[in-house]
Amino acid sequence: MLDRKLTRKDPEKVRKGVAARGVDFDIDGFLELDERMRDLIQETEKLKHRRNTVSKEISALKKQGADASALMEEMKENSGRIKETDGELKEMEERIAGLELGIPNIPHDSVPYGTCDADNPEVRRWGEIPELPEKPLPHDEIGEKLGILDMSAGSLISGRGFVVLRGDGARLSRALVSLMLDIHREQGYEELAIPYLVNRDSMIGTGQLPKMEEDMYHCEKDDLYLIPTAEVPVTNIYRDAVLDGENLPMKATAFSPCFRREAGSYGQETKGMIRVHQFDKVEMVRWTLPEKSYEDLEILLDDACAVLQALELPYRVIELCSGDLSFSAAKCYDIETWAPGSDRWLEVSSCSNFEDFQARRARIRFKREKGAKPEFVHTLNGSGLALPRIIVTIFELNQTPTGKIRIPKALVPYMGGQEYIEA
RNA sequence: GGAGAGGUGGCCGAGCGGCUGAAGGCAUCCGCCUGCUAAGCGGUUGUAGGGUUAACACUCUACCGAGGGUUCGAAUCCCUCCCUCUCCGCCA
Predict the structure, then answer these.
(1) In whole numbers, what is the pLDDT of chain A averaged over residues?
(2) Is the N end or the C end of chain A the one with fewer CB atoms within 10 Å?
(3) Residues A267-288: what's their mean pLDDT?
(4) Which nucleotide minimizes the distance between its C1' and the CA of A54?
(5) Which class in CATH covers the domain with range A4-100?
(6) Distance (Å, rounded) from C-alpha A180 to C-alpha A310?
């Protein structure tokens, strides 16, 4: 959520920011509504002021045993008016708040302008892409051959977009989670184990709702949502809190499965385990001082890259252009690994600075010192990392001519000393 | 799921329908006092929104879990919901 005062004071900035994302939003209509609401506020407050003063008069009169019925009669009418204007005001507030929740964050000044992912500039690369057999196999073929990936079992028990890992495949997945959490713990993140079902307020807090409702799994009976990322429960642990500024930045990491309906994605994208409805991910979240958040974004990015370096997987970092930014982000880097069997780069992490956009929605604040006014923190998060695509990359990049998969050295201890996955 | 108890300021805790933004205590900060420590004395300290101001300030409104209702007037009465605790039931 943007600062309403900013929208009032500098509508041009908001207009430009929103336009850079390719979003059409009627700022003028919004401001007009805002203005009308403020008029209405004044009107009701005048009436309420009258009510307060006259109530005291009535009380005084009654105490003296005098007759207050004339005033009471007047107040009856006044009360009716208050009820009316209050009702109107409430309606208007809801309308404005509804509109406001639909305004995306404004891209940071450093974000390059663009309309789609083709406009995302590459920031840097790490690692060498190794020699591979003439025709590298895609991960799903490798996995099925070795009996460690079972696509048909997934669709049998749940449907399209669900996969089953078996044997060493499942163990590899578990090993990856442990390695990632250990790395982030050493980087100073507090490890959390969090709920995978959250309430609506949490989903609004981080910005998934109301915009992305169609992409979320929802349990109607209990009005709970399956989390699309651990970002939601983790960021929301400090919803409505006032943090101690001296403790910032605070940082936490958590593993969770992620549930996404992926409404509207079809075709090649969905082949194998590249895009599935449920996947595992380790996430990092940071709560930081506003003036430090862009420094923090670079650190966060490095913290995510550290995992890929430990796994010896070559990657590139790209910066999302204005038109490709997610709803809540002010700036975002994606990290991609090379999947030779699929002949493409795969996004395995997304590191974003939300500035105070989420904090404002979730009311996460801090005080610089004891008596200071509470301010909104800046929140950031990044995947560290998304599992299935890492598995895809390991399968495809580490396949040997003899049809085995080499396990990255850092992972070997987590695999009980096993160095290869073979049939 | 059933029965009961409860949700008040940073914390604890009082609160007859009007004089309660809210007693009292603790804590905070400021000053006084005490040669240190402890104690004592006086004062101070919420959040959000509106108006106004260059700004300090000032002023109004709202907020006692949330939302409704009754009333001239609600922290206080009524209803609904949420949460916490205790007991019972059910279940990994």
Answers:
(1) 92
(2) C
(3) 87
(4) B72
(5) mainly alpha
(6) 9
Helix (H, G, I), strand (E, B) or coil at A226: strand
Instruction: Render pLDDT for A58-117 as a digit per residue (tens, 0 to 9).
Output: 888 887 878 888 888 889 999 999 999 999 998 898 889 888 888 999 999 999 999 999
DSSP 3-state percent helix, strand, coil across chain A (nearest 5): 45, 20, 35
**DSSP letter for each residue of A233-302:** HHHHTTTT-EEEGGGPSEEEEEEEEEE---TT--GGGGSTTSS-SEEEEEEEEEEE-GGGHHHHHHHHHH
Determine contact, residues A276/A253, Cβ cutoff 8 Å: no
Please tell me the predicted confidence (pLDDT) of residue A270.
65
Alpha carbons A294 and A290: distance in angstroms, whole number:
8
Same fold, A4-100 and A117-421: no
Q: What is the pLDDT of residues A164-181, one digit of tens each?
A: 999 999 999 999 999 999
The gap between A220 CA and B8 C1' (Å) is 34
- Given the structure tokens 């990255």, which residue do they identify? A408
Are A273 and A175 spatial neighbours (Cβ–Cβ below 8 Å)?
A: no
Q: Which residues numbered 36-65 in chain A sit less than 7 A from strand B, measured from CB?
A: 38, 41-42, 44-46, 48-49, 51-56, 58-59, 62
- Shortest CA to C1' contact from A372: nucleotide: B45
ipTM of the complex: 0.87
pLDDT tens-digit series, residues A195-204 = 999 999 999 9
In DSSP notation, A52-81 reads HHHHHHHHHHHHTT---HHHHHHHHHHHHH
The CATH code of domain A117-421 reads 3.30.930.10
